[in-house]
């Protein structure tokens, strides 16, 4: 089934004007083969394809990491389920463990810091709209191992600037 999802997103990418150019720009900005921890923001209005772009990139490069997680709809899920549940999902998927329980976001942050700091991970935080979400899910580069890449999709440029995201990709492509 995962393969069908990848084909669907690849098909979505072909239906977006300018997607291929944006994909190449994002790959270059991510510098997957290089060291360090990089944060990349994909910025744009609703409906311009930020999530589709992030998903296609994620599907194409996830095998180059020791663990990967695509947290879809962070804004809605954090409001409905809480940040602790998102931390559980993130850690469970990256570490491939079940029945992980986090009681509060402080505990979750400490767990992430301890368990991911030596692991090269790919993390996509989709539709982030508050700094608290970033603080709970990816506060510091030191939480992640060398070579890790964190992609953040958002409509809020100030959030990315405040969070000192290294690169900002403006999602101004359109669906046909």
From TrEMBL:
The cross-references to InterPro entries, in alphabetical order and at most eight, read:
AAA+_ATPase, Disease_R_plants, NB-ARC, P-loop_NTPase
Any one Pfam family match given in the protein's UniProt record, by short name: NB-ARC
Q: Which UniProt keywords apply?
A: Coiled coil, Membrane
Record's signal peptide = none
Localized where?
Membrane
The record, for SMART domains, names: AAA
Query: What membrane topology does the annotation report for this chain?
Result: Peripheral membrane protein
Query: What sequence ranges are listed for the domain AAA+ ATPase?
Result: 36-174
Annotated protein name in UniProt:
AAA+ ATPase domain-containing protein
Q: Which organism is it from?
A: Solanum tuberosum
Phylogenetic placement of the source organism: Eukaryota, Viridiplantae, Streptophyta, Embryophyta, Tracheophyta
């Amino acid at each position: 089934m995962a393969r069908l999802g990848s084909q669907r997103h690849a098909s979505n990418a072909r239906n977006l004007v300018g997607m291929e150019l944006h994909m190449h720009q994002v790959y270059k900005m991510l510098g997957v083969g290089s060291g360090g921890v990089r944060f990349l923001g994909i910025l744009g209005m609703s409906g311009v394809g930020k999530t589709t772009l992030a998903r296609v990139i994620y599907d194409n490069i996830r095998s180059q990491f020791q663990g990967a997680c695509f947290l879809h709809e962070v804004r809605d899920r954090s409001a409905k389920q809480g940040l602790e549940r998102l931390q559980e999902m993130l850690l469970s998927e990256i570490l491939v463990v079940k029945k992980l329980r986090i009681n509060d976001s402080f505990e979750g942050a400490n767990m992430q810091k301890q368990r991911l700091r030596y692991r090269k991970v790919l993390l996509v935080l989709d539709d982030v709209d508050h700094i608290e979400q970033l603080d709970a899910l990816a506060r510091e580069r030191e939480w992640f191992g060398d070579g890790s890449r964190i992609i953040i999709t958002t409509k809020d440029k100030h959030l990315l600037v405040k969070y000192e995201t290294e690169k900002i990709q403006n999602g101004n492509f359109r669906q046909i």
